[in-house]
Amino acid sequence: MQIFKPSKTNDSLFQKYETMLKEAMEAVHKRLHFSPFPEMPSPKEYGETAEADQKQKFESQLHGKFDRLKQSSDSWLTSDEESPYTSKALSLSYPTLSSADAYIKAAEAASQDWKRTDAKTRAGILIESLHRLKNCFFELAFATMHTTGQSYLMSFQASGPHAADRALEAIALGYQELTRFPDHVSWEKSAGKFTLKLEKYGTNIGRGLALAIGCSTFPTWNTMPGLYASLIAGNAVIVKPHPKSIYPIAVVVGIIQEVLSENGFDPNLVMLAVDKANQPITKQLAEHSAVRIIDFTGSNSFGTYIENLPNKIVFTEKAGINSVIIDSVDDLEAVAKNIAFSISLYSGQMCTAPQNIYVPESGIQTKDGVKSLADVEAAIVEATKGLVEHPKAGFAVAGAIQSTDTVERIKKAAGLGGKVLLESKPIANPEFAEARTQSPIIIEIADDKRDLIKGEMFGPIVFVVPTKDTAESIELAAASAREHGAISCSAYTKDPAVMEKIALQMAEAGTPVSFNLTGMVYVNQNAGFTDFHVTGGNPAGNASFTNPEFVVKRFIRVQSRVEG
Amino acid sequence: MQIFKPSKTNDSLFQKYETMLKEAMEAVHKRLHFSPFPEMPSPKEYGETAEADQKQKFESQLHGKFDRLKQSSDSWLTSDEESPYTSKALSLSYPTLSSADAYIKAAEAASQDWKRTDAKTRAGILIESLHRLKNCFFELAFATMHTTGQSYLMSFQASGPHAADRALEAIALGYQELTRFPDHVSWEKSAGKFTLKLEKYGTNIGRGLALAIGCSTFPTWNTMPGLYASLIAGNAVIVKPHPKSIYPIAVVVGIIQEVLSENGFDPNLVMLAVDKANQPITKQLAEHSAVRIIDFTGSNSFGTYIENLPNKIVFTEKAGINSVIIDSVDDLEAVAKNIAFSISLYSGQMCTAPQNIYVPESGIQTKDGVKSLADVEAAIVEATKGLVEHPKAGFAVAGAIQSTDTVERIKKAAGLGGKVLLESKPIANPEFAEARTQSPIIIEIADDKRDLIKGEMFGPIVFVVPTKDTAESIELAAASAREHGAISCSAYTKDPAVMEKIALQMAEAGTPVSFNLTGMVYVNQNAGFTDFHVTGGNPAGNASFTNPEFVVKRFIRVQSRVEG
Questions:
Q1: Is A202's Cβ below 8 Å from some Cβ in B?
Q2: Of A311, A351, A332, which is closest to residue A459 (Cα–Cα)?
Q3: Chain A interface mutation, best of B39, B40, B516, B563, highest count of A Cβ atoms under 10 Å
Q4: Range(s) for CATH 3.40.309.10 in chain A?
Q5: Tens-digit pLDDT profile for chain A (564 aa)?
Q6: Which of A315, A558, A559 to mutate to test the interface with B (most CBs of B within 10 A)?
């Protein structure tokens, strides 16, 4: 007998992907390199005509209806999306329902079968959706580029293979947790002359309807972990993308709906709920009593509102103020080049991009002797100029600026009262003459302007902060992380004791540190399976991709027992 | 190199208990019977003179200072504790500090070494404390009996071996989660012609100071899981017992402090913060910004206040309204006897005790044909009378009533408007003539009084609720669990389809069901390692002893990386 019989099981897809799932579960725990989806957009990996075909698909999708969703809808809405490369509207329209209630009713109805099926069925369907998504990675790249302003290569990698890695990681850890305890045990206990016997049956119950709120800069990478984690745990999900970055995640939702349909599940299990900036529906959805789980990426103010909603299980990634601590280095030029790349990459619009660079006012030790603060500043400025003014690398690294607010912020930064070490300028883009671009502005902050370093200056705005010594640098960086949040930290030191101190003090402020990066690894990078993204231990966010907490909070375990 | 070096490691105790810890980790996952601490107070297991020696220790402790704590203090406070068996004050005094701030400062200072030591050192010390506690199980039994009113046997089992099981379970799952990911990996990734290499180092960081708020009825069983889970995760803990039930947990805290001291750790890592009902300090502690984790067992109103405190990680067990659903049975008399025991055990003061018994008004199928509602009621009434009036079993099962409020509630219940099927009477206790006792009152609730079943009537107050049919019984029980909380459910049915329906509908309301109990297992019982206690899925509480969520929320994982 089995009192919790799953309904509608279908493990054919599970069997197809069982090996991959096992590898993924192992990778989650070994934390070595694992990347099942090739990260280079090479014809060899993805097919000779894939890029051209999908570019064509992207272009013919513009100015039209996104008709690939299988969800219930009653009208079409033309989105706010516009390309940071052309400043033109994408003129895309998406199917919508007329109210938050309508989305919630449809999603809840669709969840009935899903919540009663088993983890194998769910895992198979979800991994299949990632495999189909692979056939859209180039379209995703173009869609991401023309909504977020990311460069083409970053768009491909972040929205395609890297987002799929993160989703697979969430599926794998979710599957592991769902199957962690036996569904049936024959329990016996000796009680003197006789033996007590019970049959115990266990089942997992999803916490209920989930809402995944996306951001403007990483529409799939930041949304897919929570989306897939909620799904593997048995919950329906309403995806509420940022009004300016819908197209990429719409492709993802469409594919999941397609696989659900083909396997006999109601596609409304995942619904795309599109809105416009001047008619937002996020709060109506978030505050609805039926919504039990919320994943959020975005601003501090909205994130804090979400965190404070009563009776919700909330996973947030908000803003971080990331630090670079320079104590001592071998090769200053190599260090400066690495930092220049980090602050220029996607024009500082990554949540992991550095903002405040702490340098002792007495200078630093290098293999070429002591270099002064001015030397360090000059090296970073030169390396940054060299990168952004490079005719091939500059525009390819910096991409474009997603929001005009960011452009305004950069322009105002020069007047903040610091010493401008490097001015921000447009970066010419050979393909897109109208691209919204700005190179990094680098500003030395005087002692009396230190309040500036406590606020996130989203975009390519970098402060050099002269400090008494490295001890003060660490103190400022750790305090900033504790009080205002941080997602990354980069540090340079040749002294093992200083390294330990930085690592521990930043860890206690919930911040991982990357030490002595001078090569092709950058502090901004954070990879599925090996790196935890955000620790959940400071105000930059309360969740981590993908630690056990990220999945176990999405379902409960119930055991019943039968006297036998 | 290792950038996160633990401080003050000491794995000698870990080595002593490594086998036990492994067995415990295995038991957590197999969920079969595992009970490392013998549950019967037998001389063979605990020593010929243990009971007499510890009774003597208990008696000489009364009317005196509890001077076994090693924590900082500046004065003594005579507690509100009084025995439900004698109605006399225990006249015990405990060391206190003058303010919430003083406890917090002391605990935070003590946490510095603990948070930087390793999981092995912590696990060894914590398991050693349980082994020393074993030598106090009889004293714990007397202390529990004379604060909670539990019978002697229940006091021994619940506060001794069963509470130690639950603590060990939390240590084991905590240890497993803390050691789940490698502390060091040499990461490599091929990037075309060269290979990127990083050394990655991981560490766990406790979330911060914890507060464990105890209840009046199960001072160790309900407090030790959260206490030990916070400790294994690296956090200091302030234990705030119920003002009427301090002595048992004071013994536990004293022993942990002793083991900490012996192993070079500051005993203030665990502090007992005693207060009086008319001068409570719980809110001052709970609202303090330094308190990051709160474990709470107690009333709905206070529990909801705790759950709504901003920026806390909260684990609650509040009140549940537990149901019995009778659909069909073999042997009505055996069923009635099992139910009678469940409602009489510790006079209904267990969080798992049944309150509402749903019976179809048309009666039920039995092996002897259809029995009417009146037959079912009569059988339960007769079985209950037989048990509570039994000169040896009655007082031993029912124990005493912890609070005079409960006595008042029982007395008022007769006037609630239902049909009283069995009146509550005092139960004579041969040893304690003054014992505060009341046998169960059983009341049939008419349709127009059904609002009564929605409120918890703490104590031996039982409602029989006639329903149209079993479908309505399930509906009412599930709705009550969803809306008002439930921790247990007992159901009787011979129909597998009905069993499935009950199990699933109650599971979806976050409630485990015990089916067809007629022997020596009772719905009230919930054992470490095999049964999850509370699911976290309805208003009766947001946490579960001990699922992964119960431990993983108490620390974060931080990984740093070094280019090498």
A1: yes
A2: A351
A3: B563
A4: 322-515
A5: 778 988 888 889 999 999 999 999 999 999 999 999 999 999 999 999 999 999 999 999 999 999 999 999 999 999 999 999 999 999 999 999 999 999 999 999 999 999 999 999 999 999 999 999 999 999 999 999 999 999 999 999 999 999 999 999 999 999 999 999 999 999 999 988 899 999 999 999 999 999 999 999 999 999 999 999 999 999 999 999 999 999 999 999 999 999 999 999 999 999 999 999 999 999 999 999 999 999 999 999 999 999 999 999 999 999 999 999 999 999 999 999 999 999 999 999 999 999 999 999 999 999 999 999 999 999 999 999 999 999 999 999 999 999 999 999 999 999 998 999 999 999 999 999 999 999 999 999 988 999 999 999 999 999 999 999 999 999 999 999 999 999 999 999 999 999 999 999 999 999 999 999 999 999 999 999 999 999 999 999 999 999 999 999 999 999 999 997
A6: A558
What's the complex ipTM?
A: 0.97
The pLDDT tens digits of the residues spanning A93-136 come to: 999 999 999 999 999 999 999 999 999 999 999 999 999 999 99
Pick the CATH number of B52-318+543-563 from 3.40.50.620, 3.40.605.10, 3.40.50.10420, 3.30.310.50: 3.40.605.10
Contact B549 A549 (CB under 8 A): yes
The chain B residue lying nearest A554, using CA atoms, is B549
Measured distance CA(A231)–CA(A209) in Å, rounded: 10
Distance from CA of A508 to the nearest CA of B (A): 6
Interface of B with A in 167-186 (CB under 8 A): 177, 180-182, 185
Handedness of CA A497, A500, A505, A508 (dihedral sign): negative
SS3 A225: helix
Burial per residue of B530-554, b for 16 or more beta-carbon CB atoms within 10 angstroms, e otherwise: bbbbbbbbbbbbbbbbbbbbbbbbb
Check B521 against A563: CB less than 8 A apart: yes
Q: Is the pLDDT of residue B564 over 80?
A: no
Q: What does the alpha-carbon distance between residue A454 and residue A350 come to, in Å, rounded to a whole number?
A: 18
A261 contacts A70 by C-beta, under 8 angstroms: yes
Residues on chain B touching A548 (C-beta within 8 angstroms) = 177, 180, 548, 552
Of B194, B200, B549, the CB nearest to A552: B549
**Closest by Cβ to B548, choosing from A191, A548, A563:** A548
- Alpha-carbon gap, residue B514 to B522, rounded angstroms: 8
Contacts of B560 in chain A (CB under 8 A): 503, 506-507, 512-515
Contact at CB, A3 and B310, closer than 8 angstroms: no
Q: Which B-chain residues 204-243 have CB contacts (< 8 A) with chain A?
A: 205, 207
Q: Does B508 touch chain A (CB under 8 A)?
A: yes
Cβ contacts of B534 on chain A, cutoff 8 Å: none
Beta-carbon contacts below 8 Å between A and B: 204
CA-based nearest distance A360→chain B, Å: 22
B59-69 pLDDT, tens digit each? 999 999 999 99
Residues carrying CATH 3.40.605.10, chain A: 48-183+206-318+543-559
State which fold the A48-183+206-318+543-559 domain adopts. Answer: Aldehyde Dehydrogenase; Chain A, domain 1 (3.40.605)
CATH code at B322-515: 3.40.309.10
Chain A hits for B44, Cβ within 8 Å:
none
Residue B75: CB atoms within 10 Å: 10
- Chain A, 331 to 360: residues with Cβ < 8 Å from chain B are none
Q: pTM, whole model, 2 decimals? A: 0.97
Tokens 């009283």 correspond to: B420
Q: What are the residues whose beta carbons fall under 8 Å from the beta carbon of B445, sequence distance 6 or more?
A: B418, B452, B453, B463, B464, B465, B466
The mean of the pLDDT values for chain B is: 97
Q: Amino acid letter at B17?
A: Y
Give the pLDDT of residue B193: 87
Q: What are phi and psi of B367, to 5 degrees?
A: -65, -20
Chain region(s) in chain B for CATH 3.40.605.10: 52-318+543-563
B272: which strand partners?
B239
